[in-house]
Amino acid sequence: MMTLKWTPWFLAVLVLSGCSTTITNLTPSKQPRNANGLYLFEVALESSQQTLRKETIKPYVIVGFDSYPMLPAPVLKNRWETLVPFPADKKYLNYRYKFDYDYNSFPQRGASSKLSSPYQLEIADK
Predict the structure, then answer these.
(1) Partners of 101 in the beta sheet?
(2) Domains and CATH numbers, the chain
């Protein structure tokens, strides 16, 4: 009977301390305007979720209703990058990162996603 009293508390501690996922924006908040209108976006993902299937991670940069798929950064682990077009007549670009991924679950594999907080890129004229 004593074990039943502690079971909910034990489960709550496991759930609260179990999984944390951190999205780190590596893109500078200000960049100089360039001639080709493409700007490099970089992001890192750290997760302690043991059930996460790392080979299924698909990151995107979300700008308005457009999404730009990201590719793994060369040599670096858990980092992705992509080039995003930016109109020449604009000065600010609001964006977010989105990560779609699968995780191990019983009885079958599950799917989920994580959305970053919003960011803003300022393009400085030379």
Answers:
(1) 112
(2) 19-124 (2.60.40.10)
What is the SS3 assignment for 92?
strand
* First-residue to last-residue Cα distance in the chain: 73
- Sign of torsion, CA 18 44 74 52? positive
Per the structure block, which two tokens stand in for 94? 């609001």
Give the HSE-up count for residue 20: Cα atoms under 13 Å, Cβ half-sphere.
Answer: 5
Residue 3 has pLDDT above 70, yes or no: no
Paired strand residues for 2: none
**Could you tell me if 121 and 34 are in contact, meaning their C-beta atoms sit under 8 angstroms apart?**
no
Q: For 35-55, what is each residue's pLDDT tens digit?
A: 999 999 999 999 888 888 889
pTM score, whole prediction: 0.81
Please compute the mean of the pLDDT values over residues 73-100 and round it to a whole number: 94
Question: What residues pair up with 95 in beta bridges, in sequence order?
Answer: 119
Q: What does residue 10 show for φ and ψ, rounded to 5 degrees?
A: -65, -45
Above 70 in pLDDT, residue 102? yes
